[in-house]
């Protein structure tokens, strides 16, 4: 995968991208949802990461052909994806919307999805898809009786029933419990190991970190960073953090803290809390309690002030 | 195409919806029976004009079809399940055609049975007249269904827009503004009734049977093409 952000990892030039997004923008009236985004997606698992409202879904919708681009082109397997129904034999898409046909039984839904996608041996394909998502026991129940997680899994079965080469999944782990997340992770790894290309979106950093080989970071409709997760993690580690420290003698502790190598600056808030600016929070976490003990200061609490995903993305955009 | 047709039939045939349609469809039959019971209520010409043309072709048929056909795509757009269909390797015309056929399948029998019962009661079992009225109602169902299936795709307020169309265009302008009726579905449905039984609806200035058949095909095909075009160009939610 390549991108126009940072830090980038260029793929082998000989490899043909499965998805090519080239200079794509999309605006709704005066609102720009996606702005001049360019990247390629190669086989394996690619995570599309960004805070809510960043433009991930709009981007995914353009990648699936559900939405048109205002500018730029999207090709999948070398063909324009928009208004190209035959291409959907090779693509499986699960949208973020969790609505299902409540009057249908789970198996009926997967069978219908298979028929719509031209699956020949429909019964075998449906059995396999339902087995993959581990819902064989519930397949004859109406989908209106399913839990949120079960609905998601049955929708995934419907997405997998025609054995697509490319899977595009928008927030697929919404509603999944921890056991289902582990199952889903193994499933995606298996599908990717079989040579499939998988693109999944999430607004949860850890979720994508666990699943994706490569990451596309989207912020404010722009590609903020792309590449391997380690490279992005390295960029994140260079980011300065504000840490709020509560103790019984902040001024006394601040005099010692400012001398630590891991600390860039210290100030005391009007409410008496000490705020430390650090580029090495891991070292700070070790050194600060030691220092407090040595100074005989009682340390009550340490908390990062700007650890939200938005601030992480904001940092990457500024870099 | 069969899968989409079956799916749409199930979506459109909820008991509540069918119940409302049944109540609407039975109204002309009741009125016909009341007219028959009281000979002084209205003349046969007035009956043809009021019950068959204005009420059946101009109100009941479009209202029943509106309730069904706008939901064919409208429900899927609202539920955001339309992507299940558009992300399948199926030509768009098949999706639109299946939705139209399903809408006609649900609305058609009720409306045609209502027309048959109304005409049979009013014309005292005269089968020529009954068949003519049934054919005209069936043609109206097909034309309105095509219009409202497209409307369900084109507008988020399809029912409201459809009601305005039925009341203002079909009900008012087509009746009182010269020339407008040439662009109304009711005009061609009534022309078809008249063409199949020329004694009926003599009070109207009719198009010929051939013109009615051609216009039925053009209106149906035209709105179906618009629906296919819309399906190809729209952003699917």
Task: Explain what this protein looks like in three dimensions.
The complex is a heterodimer of chains A (319) and B (237). Chain A is α/β, with parallel strands linked by helices and 319 residues long. Chain A is built from 10 helices and 15 strands. Chain A has helices at 56-64, 106-116, 122-132, 148-160, 178-193, 205-211, 229-237, 250-257, 281-294, 309-318, and strands spanning 2-3, 19-28, 31-41, 44-49, 71-76, 79-80, 91-94, 166-170, 197-202, 214-219, 222-228, 241-247, 263-268, 274-278, 299-304. In chain A, strand 2 and strand 3 (31-41) form a beta hairpin. Chain A starts with a strand and ends with a helix. Chain B has one domain (2-233). Chain B is built from 9 helices and no strands. Chain B is globular and about 60 Å long. Chain B starts with a helix and ends with a helix. Classes of the chains: A alpha/beta (319), B mainly alpha (237).
What's this model, at a glance?
Chain A is 34% helix and 28% strand. Chain A is an alpha/beta fold. The mean pLDDT of chain B is 89.
Structural class of the helices, strands and pairings of chain A? alpha/beta
Task: Give the helices and strands of chain A as they follow along the chain.
Answer: EEEEHEEEHHHEHEHEEHEHEEHEH
Mean pLDDT of chain A: 86
Number of helices of chain B: 9
Query: Which architecture of the largest domain in chain A would the CATH scheme give at its second level?
Result: 3-Layer(aba) Sandwich
Q: How many runs of DSSP E, i.e. beta strands of chain A?
A: 15
Alpha-carbon distance between the termini of chain A? 21 Å
- The N- and C-terminal alpha carbons of chain B lie at a distance of 21 Å
Q: How many distinct folded domains of chain B?
A: 1
Sheet with most strands of chain A: 6 strands, mixed
Uncertain segments of chain B: none
- Assembly classification: heterodimer
CATH structural fold name of the largest domain in chain A: Rossmann fold
Largest sheet: spatial strand order of chain A: 7-8-9-4-10-11
CATH class of the largest domain in chain A: Alpha Beta
**Radius of gyration of chain A (Å):** 24 Å
**Roughly how many Å is the radius of gyration of chain B?**
18 Å
């Amino acid at each position: 995968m390549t991108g126009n952000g940072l830090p980038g990892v260029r793929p082998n030039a000989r490899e043909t991208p499965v998805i090519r997004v080239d200079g794509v923008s999309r605006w709704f009236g005066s609102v720009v949802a996606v702005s001049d985004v360019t990247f390629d997606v190669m086989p394996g698992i690619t995570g599309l990461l960004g805070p809510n409202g960043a433009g991930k879904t709009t981007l995914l919708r353009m990648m699936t052909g559900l939405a048109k681009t205002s500018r730029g082109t999207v090709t999948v397997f070398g063909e324009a994806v928009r208004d190209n129904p035959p291409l959907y034999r090779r693509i499986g898409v699960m949208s973020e919307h969790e609505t299902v046909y409540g009057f249908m039984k789970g198996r009926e839904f997967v069978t219908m999805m298979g028929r719509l996608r031209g699956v020949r041996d429909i019964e075998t394909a449906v059995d396999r898809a339902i087995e993959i998502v581990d819902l064989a026991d519930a397949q004859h129940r109406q989908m209106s009786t399913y839990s949120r997680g079960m609905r998601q899994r049955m929708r995934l079965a419907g997405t997998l029933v025609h054995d697509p080469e490319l899977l595009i999944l928008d927030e697929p782990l919404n509603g999944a419990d921890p056991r289902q997340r582990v199952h889903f992770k193994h499933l995606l790894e298996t599908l990717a190991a079989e040579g499939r290309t998988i693109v999944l979106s999430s607004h949860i950093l850890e979720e994508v970190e666990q699943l994706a080989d490569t990451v596309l970071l989207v912020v404010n409709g722009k590609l903020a960073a792309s590449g391997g997760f380690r490279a992005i993690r390295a960029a994140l580690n260079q980011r300065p953090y504000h840490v709020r420290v509560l103790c019984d003698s902040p001024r006394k502790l601040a005099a010692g803290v400012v001398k630590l190598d891991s600390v860039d600056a210290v100030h005391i808030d009007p409410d008496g809390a000490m705020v430390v600016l650090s580029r090495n929070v891991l070292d700070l976490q070790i050194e600060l309690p030691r220092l407090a003990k040595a100074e005989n200061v009682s340390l009550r609490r340490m908390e990062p002030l700007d650890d939200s995903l938005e601030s992480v993305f904001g940092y990457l955009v500024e870099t | 195409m069969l899968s989409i047709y079956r799916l749409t039939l199930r979506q459109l045939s909820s008991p509540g919806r069918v119940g409302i349609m049944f109540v609407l469809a039975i109204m002309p039959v009741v009125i016909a029976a009341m007219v028959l019971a009281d000979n002084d209520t209205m003349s046969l010409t007035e009956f043809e004009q009021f019950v068959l043309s204005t009420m059946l072709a101009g109100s009941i048929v479009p209202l029943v079809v509106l309730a069904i056909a706008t939901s064919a795509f409208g429900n899927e757009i609202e539920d955001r399940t339309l992507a299940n269909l558009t992300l399948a390797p199926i030509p768009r015309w098949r999706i639109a055609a299946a939705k139209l056929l399903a809408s006609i399948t649900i609305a058609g029998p009720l409306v045609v049975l209502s027309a048959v019962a109304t005409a049979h009661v009013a014309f005292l079992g005269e089968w020529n007249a009954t068949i003519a009225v049934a054919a005209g109602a069936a043609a109206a169902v097909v034309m309105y269904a095509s219009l409202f299936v497209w409307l369900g795709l084109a507008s988020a307020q399809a029912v409201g827009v459809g009601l305005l169309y039925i009341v203002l265009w079909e009900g008012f302008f087509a009746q009182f503004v010269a020339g407008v009726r040439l662009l109304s579905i009711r005009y061609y449905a009534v022309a078809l009734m008249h063409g199949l039984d020329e004694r009926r609806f003599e009070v109207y200035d009719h198009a010929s049977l051939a013109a009615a058949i051609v216009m039925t095909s053009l209106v149906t095909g035209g709105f179906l093409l618009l629906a296919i075009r819309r399906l190809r160009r729209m952003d699917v939610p």
